[in-house]
Amino acid sequence: MAFVKDMLRMWAHSWKRFISIAMITLLGVAVLTGIYAGCRDAFRSTDRFFDAQGLHDVQVLSTAGLSNGDIAALRKVNGVAKVQAERSQEVTFDLDGRKSATMQEIGTNGIDQPYLQEGRMPKKAGEIAVTRKFIRDSGKHIGSRLTVTPESASSDTSDTSDTNGADGTNETNGTDEAPSFPTKLTIVGVVLDPQNLSNPDGYSAMTSFRSTATTDYTFFAPSDGVTGTLCTSATLLVKGAAAESTFDESYENTVKQVTDRIDGTVKTDRQKARRQELLDAGNRKIADARAEADKKFADAQSQIDANRQQFNQQVDQIVSMQAGAAAAGAAANGANAGAAAAAGATTPQLDETTRETMRETIIAASPELTQAKQQLDQAQSQLNEQKASTEHTLKTKENELKTSIPQVRWYVQDRQSLGGFSALKSDLDSIQSLGNAFPIVFLLVAVMMSLTAMARMVEEDRSLIGTYVGLGYGRLAVASRYLLFALLACLIGGGLGLIAGFLGIPAFLLVVLQGMYVMPGLRLEYDWLYGSLGIALFVVGVLAATIYACVQEMRQTPASLLRPKAPRAGSRILLERLRPVWNRMGFLSKVTARNIFRFKSRLIMTVGGVAGCTALIVCGLAINDTVADLGIKQYRDIYQYDLMVVSDDSDASAMRTKVASDGRVTSSLDVRIESGDLTVAGSGDGDSGKTGSSGSESIQLVAVPEKHLSDLGEMVTLQPVSSGILGTSGVGKTGSLKLDDDGVIVAQSAASALGVKAGSKVRLTNGDGVQATAKVSAVNRNLIGSDVYVSETYYAKLFDSKDAKNTKNSKSSKDSEALTWNAMLAKLSGSDASQTDYAESLEEDSSVMKAVSCAHMADSFKFDLMGAVVALIVALAGGLALVVLFTLANTNVSERVREMATLKVLGFFDREVHHYVNREMMILTVMGVILGLPLGRLVGGMLTMALNMPSLYFEVEVKPLSYVIAAVATMAFALLVQLFVNPVLDRIDPISSLKSVE
After folding, report:
1. What is the C-alpha to C-alpha distance for residues 863 and 259, in angstroms, rounded to an integer?
2. Whether residue 345 has pLDDT greater than 50
3. pTM, 2 dp
4. Among the four residues 163, 181, 479, 700, which has the most C-beta atoms within 10 Å?
């Protein structure tokens, strides 16, 4: 009992050490669990929301729409739980200029159900539900009316339909028609689209550079009133996928099994079947057109024949009358009156030659008959010409039918293809990667500080330990006094750290996240396993340091422990050998130098602890500086052009004419821009329809005209980059990179994510889904977006090749003809504001699909989530620095109580004692700061490996101001600690402190 009381008394006396260990553990556990818990809570709530709304696991798109046969084939795929056929249509309306929207049918099979936020769901034709973004932009409300105009060719399906019909109709076959929605609409509800969780009321502008939306808004309508049997897409739910977290690898593997099955046989078979359906529909239409034309021609011929017969009868009557009259006159001049009477009573019989001669004579003599005959002959001639022309047209269409209908392509996509999903996942993954990296530094600092504190605590009780061991107490029992002390401090600090880690930090992060994304049903959850392991990690580290300190002392005999520890033997320091310097130093300066460099363990612990904290602050500020400069570097330094304009292929010429007529362009470069995919050769299955798989990156494929390859360097800064150690990269000289016909230039952001370098082989997918293997000639410096530059000649070589996948024996429409330059990179005159306004005005033009101002992108690029995490890390690092300095300062004072008492006896005033002690701590702090600044830059340079996000490359930069802030903050913490240490120095009693320990 006395042993326990003494132990408790010892614990109470060492309350400062207890608080230090507890605080370090608290901060470490909070960092370890806080960022993880915040991301995990967001992951789980989003996963629950996706499951509740039935967000599709797989989506199938087709360039020719999906028929009932396609849907039936998908239902038969092993592993598919549900299939929902979806119909949509693009429409336009007037909202401060021309705006576009996608009319989306609300599925009846429970997939991709919008989440009702206000009002009610639409139930009948003409009712729609809109997103909150539309309500905010339009100023409309529930009950407002809206009139929309369907796009004439608003989707791939309708485009294909327009080219498939032999007579130019919009039908792809006899029964499949493109979807059509009502045009007079009434808003009855406000919903959240599960495919896009971006918060329109928050600060989510940072996601604009990753937006994949092709229209401005989405309207949700019920099936009632929607016509057309052709589906624009099919969405699938996979068996067992809902039981997995959508952000885990197990979910991806489950879905991949189904997508592989679809890609394996179903996709190929249905692509062929669908194209054959289109061919059969075209042939049927041609046959129907021929039958209808033959019927019309037959009716016309019958009419002409009837008119000609009537004409001939009239002429024959005249011929008969004239022949009878002639015969009667001849008989009257004869001798036989009886013969004359008989001749007058009968019509003379004329041979055919005579009759035909008389017909021609009669017709020629009568203008009316001549005109009638000419009309009949002309009608017959025209009919014959129409017959020949129609037959030639039908024959031509029969011959052109196979070439006019392109190969049907399916695109099998998973959730990674959804812009909103991939943006949320990449944001959370990047933050979680930071949460996995920074606790390591906290753990190392905690172990160092615990070793320092516990070693001093054990050393102070040296004689007491010897007494207990001499009295027969086991060494383990004696060591338990310190082990339990450290354990209790870790448990209390860890418990408080769990509260901060699972409540405080996640609440802070989720507030920031909810400013960017809408996550219904978000709640904080505790993870018992991860929380327990987090505390256990610090408990093991601190106990290991305590055990080491105890072993160092207790391996001696009780007699040795009962005697005071012999003073450290005097020794010279290196500075003493520099006589010119040493001789000019004052007495107190020499004492300070000896105290600093003779006690190497204290030197290492103090400098190492301060350096680690400073490095954390620098690292956090490095993230902030890096993110803050991403937009400026990309859109002002790398992109030298001011404007990028993109149009449809059919509007390319009109777009260039429009831009040229405005007179704002000082120089320009016509290019072709396509959305594609880049895959590391050999890492994937190489299927063009599959996106979002491992080793794949969405890209912007930029083809440059052969005659203007040298002009690319005037629009884009071409700088080769090479991979360095620890994720760093080296940048070559500006202008030393040229685009040629030997390979493609890949953006650094894509190359870093996939591990691609110059000389690598990659598989490129162009805008038509055609794939080909390409050589990477160079990697270009690029921070935002994933551009791949290719020359016109090399593009043709890649995608005109017979070996290019999916081309088989046919080619895409662009493969067999010259490229259409559907985009323009231009430099503009005027200020940044005027350039932004001009880009916005261009988007209202019907010939322009997208207009992007680099000035606007540079100013609007934000990464609020990363900024919030940086603020959190810097605050925690500052707290750690404060605790570390406090621990080291108190340990330093406790080790030198007799020294401080001696100084007081010698006549030093309190302020002089303060200066004597604090000067050493300040010098050690300065040394730690000097070491921590480059260490922080080195650790910050490794962030490229940790922050591996789609379409982003973090070119780490630390501004001089950040170094100043880190140094000043650390020194400020050191000065703050002095305010706590000075009263301790003042309370030292010289008499009691100098009493003999013997």
Report:
1. 33
2. no
3. 0.72
4. 181
